[in-house]
Specification:
The protein is built from 5 helices and no strands. The chain is mainly α. It folds into 2 domains: 68 residues, no CATH class; 63 residues.
Length: 132
C-alpha cells in the first residue's frame, strides 16, 4: 500500500472512530464475561460495571485518538454523557417505532438501530462534543 494512502486512511476520524468501537466492544464483552464468570457478580452488577468501564474507555479513546482533543475540558465530559443519554432515548424511540409501528423483526430493528447510533454518535462527537 502506498504510504500516502495509508496516511490518509489513518488520518480519517471515521476509521479511528470505528476502531475505537471495535476495541470498546471487546473490552465491554471481556469485562462482562469476567464479572459474570470469574467474579460471579449478578447480571445487573456485571452489566453496570462493564458499561461504566466501556463508557469511560470510549470517551478517553475518542477524545485522544479519534478526535485528537488533548486539553482537559469538563464540558466535553458533560457533552459526552449528554450525547449518551440522547442516543439512549433515541434508541428506545427508534426501536419502538421500528418494531411496533413498522412491524420489523426485532433482530432487523436492532441492526438498523445500531447503524443509526454509530452514525449519530460520530456526528455528535465530531461536531459538538469534541469540536475544536
Amino acid at each position: 500500500m502506498h504510504y500516502g494512502m495509508y496516511k490518509r486512511i489513518m488520518n480519517s476520524s471515521w476509521l479511528r472512530y470505528s476502531c475505537v468501537g471495535v476495541i470498546n466492544t471487546l473490552v465491554y464483552s471481556s469485562s462482562l464475561w469476567l464479572m459474570l464468570q470469574k467474579i460471579n457478580l449478578s447480571i445487573v452488577w456485571s452489566t453496570s460495571i462493564a458499561t461504566v468501564i466501556s463508557m469511560i474507555l470510549q470517551f478517553l479513546l475518542n477524545k485522544i485518538f479519534t478526535f485528537k482533543s488533548y486539553h482537559f475540558c469538563k464540558y466535553e465530559v458533560v457533552k459526552y454523557f449528554s450525547m449518551v443519554l440522547f442516543n439512549y432515548g433515541n434508541s428506545l424511540l427508534c426501536l419502538k417505532l421500528l418494531i411496533n409501528y413498522l412491524h420489523l423483526q426485532v433482530q432487523l430493528a436492532v441492526g438498523i438501530n445500531i447503524v443509526l447510533l454509530i452514525i449519530s454518535g460520530y456526528v455528535i462527537s465530531n461536531y459538538w462534543v469534541f469540536k475544536k
